[in-house]
Amino acid sequence: MSDFFLWFTRPDNSKLFVLILFFVVYTLIILYVFTNKKRSKRLESYKNIPFEDGDETTPKSKDKEHE
Which of 13, 48, 59, 67 sits most deeply, having the most CB atoms within 10 A of its CB? Predict the structure, then answer.
């Protein structure tokens, strides 16, 4: 086990390990986001948020509710 730590402490080896780790994590995130159909439909609906009218989605203030 200590041999692994000695191997890992060398910058050449740790850089490769971190590169592979980040690539795997990035790939898993991309797969997570784009593989589920429900999730992809929800993400597609988010692209229109800037073009929607803000008055319909704005909650009413408490003063107007009591009038």
Answer: 13
